[in-house]
Amino acid sequence: MDNKIRNSSDYSHCRPGVADKLTTSVDAVEVARWQKQGRKTLGSALSSTRLQIERRTRQIYNLLTNEGFTAVADRVRAKAVDWIKPRKFTWEVRPEDVIAADLERRPLNCLLPIVADQPIMINWVMVPAGPGSGGHTTISRIIRYLQAKGHKNRVYFYDPYGGDQKYYEHLARQHYGITCEIGWVRNGMSDAHAVVATSWPSAYAVYNAGTAGKRFYFVQDYEPYFYPVGTNSALAENTYRMGFHGITAGRWLADKLSREFGMDTDSFPFGCDTARYHYEASARRSGIAFYARPETPRRAVELGLLALELFAKRQPGIELHLFGTDMAGTSLKFIDHGVASPEKLNDVYNSCRAGLALSLTNVSLVPHEMLACGCIPVVNDAGHNRMVLDNPYVRYAPLTPSGLAAALDDVVCAPDADAHSKRAAASVLTMSWDTAGAAVEEALYRSLLRAN
């Protein structure tokens, strides 16, 4: 037999009959080898499956024992959400608008002539919102103020998701009190003295529009912080390089955008709706109010809940009131107010000695609302909070569960708590959204006159 055979299946050189026997023998060996390999693979797969089943069984048992059925249900929901969510990137701005926004070649927008103290035309470009948006509430307050001063406003919605136009117009009028003309960017904008972006997606629409008018940016928070470092954070940051004149909620944003991006900025002070939020002398104050919105990560809800757990162990007789969203399923014992109306919140604040309102970026409207009702807000100690709140009755605390719990404990145990509450409410009586509106009006006039 030729000992130079290179292919075990090639026996063409053998005598008839011998090749058949050899082939049959080799085939049997091959089959046996594959069967053995198959049994080994199947055994390995079964072993791995058994290990995973045992692991998941122990995990579920531990969760049920230590945290209850809710914890198991939460894990199942989280896995389900991860499974069904889109695998592709979700654009919050139309990609074609990003491509069109060449920041190296800024468009030269025509300017309409302006006369000091004469009414001006303002286009507001915003993403449509459902009920309860604090940012849209502030914008609508400013629009109403300017409208009352004789200026003409138009609202243009920018919606990359293709929402229903009539529905969002209805919400804008019913929930935010917008009475001016409402249109959609996709249908084009009329010329105006000022064209105002109100969020980072809308900034791309304002940048690309051929509409006449000086560009402004109504900035209420540092929106790159809303995302992990990635495409959305980069796209949001780039809007501060578009050359708009910034009008910001509070001085912190004005300083940050001017310092880091060279933007021309003005700021307006936070207002407080003291007609809706007010001190009630007859109220019995004993609880703690917590602004809890887990869907808004910058409000650090998880840290707040840990702080309340520590506080509840120290003060088990004090009621905890949560508001902002439906918090059902949390192990903490509390009264859940969900998405509450201003009238309901006024009652909640007046029933509480202290409130917890955390913010990792620009502050929300909540601390001032609490103050107006005599509820002492405990906030995380940060430069942006101190600069914007600027109130001696705000209690600052380290952003740790123990630090926040200790501050809440100090407030509720203070010997002069009633008098302190009354003084705190008096400290914001002069705060008005008219003051904020006047600051915006002045900033618009000053910038427009300088441009002309």
UniProtKB/TrEMBL annotation:
Residues annotated as domain WsaF N-terminal: 213-245
Occurrences of domain WsaF C-terminal (ranges): 288-408
Secretion signal, residue range per the UniProt entry: none
InterPro entries, per the entry: WsaF_C, WsaF_N
Pfam families reported for this sequence: WsaF_C, WsaF_N
Domain of life: Bacteria
Any one GO molecular-function label of the UniProt entry: polysaccharide binding
Protein name: Glycosyltransferase involved in cell wall biosynthesis
